[in-house]
């Protein structure tokens, strides 16, 4: 299992390497980088990598600069002494965000998540390949009613769908809501799951509508959407991990 470590602090790098040796002895560290420039050069060498650990603050900038300059298509576990970068991290290939100083139990849990996701996608691979060969059946527009008139709304303009008083609505990014004649269950079956996901029983959100994710009691997530809905959107504890992975792409 090939691992890349991007960390500019030697004590933190050594602590991570010791932790990997303890809980994931099958790991082979194929690269150690301490800056944005060094990491970009290493990635361009096309060395096979299965998993990467990225510190966020590096000697010449933030590790997010790497993602802006190079198509990083490997799973990443971020490490940081700060939690202010949490949302931006999940807009990359992040599968976890570990706070420093690194704790062995947190590292073990992050690696278990990686193994679970890898196993899940390997099981789904035959179906995914079949889906790629099958023309998409996802709808590209919906007909919404407002003031007695009907308007076709392109899917790219829809921020989220929601139910209220047993009725279904869609909200555009411009802040206009339209009545729909379908239930959320029926709508969910017609949407691209890479772009829309059920946050809870009341709301299906577009990944582009998620402005901020806040942790609340018992590992639930509070979503800040754009435009702002007239109610709180909370993701359950059971759905929180999967939702964060989905938002991160």
Automatic annotation (TrEMBL):
Gene3D superfamilies named among the record's database cross-references: 3.40.50.2300, LytTr DNA-binding domain
MF-aspect GO terms: phosphorelay response regulator activity; transcription cis-regulatory region binding
Annotated keywords: DNA-binding, Phosphoprotein
Keyword Phosphoprotein included in the entry's annotation: yes
Pfam families reported for this sequence: LytTR, Response_reg
Modification sites for 4-aspartylphosphate: 55
Domain Response regulatory per the UniProt entry, residue ranges: 2-115
Highest taxon above the source species: Bacteria
An example Gene Ontology biological process: regulation of DNA-templated transcription
GO cellular component entries: cytosol; protein-DNA complex
Keyword DNA-binding: yes
Protein name: Two component transcriptional regulator, LytTR family
Source species: Haliscomenobacter hydrossis (strain ATCC 27775 / DSM 1100 / LMG 10767 / O)
